[in-house]
Design brief:
The chain is mainly α and about 90 residues long. Helix content is about 60%, strand content about 5%. The longest helix is centred in the last third of the chain and has 20 residues. Bound molecules: zinc ion (ZN). Zinc ion binds next to helix 2.
């Protein structure tokens, strides 16, 4: 039985959409990674079983409230990272 934090899936999915709204934000691997980590730490994890097609089923169940929360946390994370990138 495998499991995955479904929030990681949505954060990855929404990352480009959010970054597109911040043209000044660096989009390198390190910054994207930092943004994802900050956002995920501020979101409640949602573990789902990834056993045979179940992940897809659970994705369909996700309500739009969770999606809005992910977008909100991603925007906050983008602002934090673009203000203090860990590289010059
Ligand atoms: Zn960067």
């Amino acid at each position: 039985m495998e499991y995955k934090n479904y929030m990681e899936v949505i954060v990855e999915e929404k990352m480009d959409e959010v970054l597109a709204q911040y043209p000044q934000c660096c989009k390198c691997e390190q910054c994207r990674h930092d943004i994802a980590v900050i956002a995920l730490n501020n979101l409640h994890p949602r573990y789902v079983s990834t056993e045979k097609g179940q992940l897809f089923a659970r994705i369909q169940e996700m309500n739009s409230q969770s999606e809005i929360e992910v977008l909100r946390q991603l925007m906050t994370a983008v602002e934090i990272v673009s203000a203090n990138p860990r590289h010059s």
